[in-house]
């Protein structure tokens, strides 16, 4: 199969893996997706995507109909089928530590290696501590049958939840971390459709490729915390952070993206990635170089506490017995992901102070109920808002942006709102008689 279109396997069919497998099959590759979770594999085989991602179910249909996408739970089958194996499992924050939990990456590589009996490329896509590819190279060499030539490469993934299909089909750039020309050629073949569409490519060594990913997420997190730090200063001076951000954004060197102030960042990537990066840099003796990321994390977590402060103030100084309508649970709109979701953190803190919190989210209700069974859940905005003393907008779904303040005003007990995401038109809400408050704005 050398030179020809490589056959691809994708290890791990979570967010990243499922999207990658589906898109590569639609692009014309033969793809085998693998996961140890039988239920997940069954769901995918039956044409359903096990999480919410706009556009992905249609792509899965297309891929299955093409006959180019199959799923398995067997490492033997993966080894037998594939020329290029993509590692797409998660690297969550380790329990009781800030380091990345590498057990899933290590498990798939250890599961696959003993079955590899011909030349193959293992490509890491997961976000990992720098040095992982080198470590995995030794691991594979110790586990693969003697004489088989297995190489590691790194191809970090930059997709955003909610835009997974778009970001995979038309990425801003591709990064190939490789240790040989052969690996570069194999990766070029696997990404031929993107390269033909002139997606920019950076070819580099393994540690640089690993670092690109954590650097990118660190920069994005820093940008968000920067504007949120400015919001704190605005609060002390009566200035308006929205106007400030708008004015900064006109400077092309700064740019307006990821400069939206509010409740801050959450999700399964940004928070744990910056923590793992600090941890890894300390191990390498260069902790000082990234110690500013500690401040980025602290500013971000402070947003949650300050949002609670604002909601408490809107409730008249105490949250005990106060009914709060919490709009949003997902860590961001267009996702059902509640990992490290600022919205649910705020809901939990409100409840700790004795508030009765009624949560509504267009997609994340099942996930939220599972992890936070003690909160109250409503099945619509109207139900969440009925009789509420404070409304808190915590995730900026379009569904919430489109709420008519006059309509909502008739449902609540008191027209007090905290716009945790700067998502609403403050003038329209004030016009409708609401006491509108947002962090970084007076
Ligand atoms: C992030 C990166 O944006 C992706 O490029 C990366 O591939 C991914 O992590 C990953 O490492 O896998 P994602 O976690 O899907 O993607 O979400 P983002 O769109 O980055 O949003 C992260 C958080 O920041 C959300 O909670 C969002 O509400 C918040 N945010 C974003 C702000 O508070 N302000 C902004 O201006 C932008």
UniProtKB/TrEMBL annotation:
Residue ranges of every copy of the UDP-glucose/GDP-mannose dehydrogenase C-terminal domain listed in the record: 325-426
Catalytically driven reaction(s): UDP-alpha-D-glucose + 2 NAD(+) + H2O = UDP-alpha-D-glucuronate + 2 NADH + 3 H(+)
Gene3D superfamilies referenced in this protein's UniProt entry, alphabetically: Cytochrome c1, transmembrane anchor, C-terminal (1.20.5.100), NAD(P)-binding Rossmann-like Domain (3.40.50.720)
Transmembrane segments: none
Gene Ontology molecular functions: oxidoreductase activity
Record's keyword terms, sorted: NAD, Oxidoreductase
Pathway: Nucleotide-sugar biosynthesis; UDP-alpha-D-glucuronate biosynthesis; UDP-alpha-D-glucuronate from UDP-alpha-D-glucose: step 1/1
Catalytic class of the enzyme: oxidoreductase
Lineage top rank: taxon: Bacteria
Signal peptide: none
Assigned EC number: 1.1.1.22
NCBIfam families: NDP-sugDHase
Family: Belongs to the UDP-glucose/GDP-mannose dehydrogenase family.
Protein name: UDP-glucose 6-dehydrogenase
Protein's organism: Tenggerimyces flavus
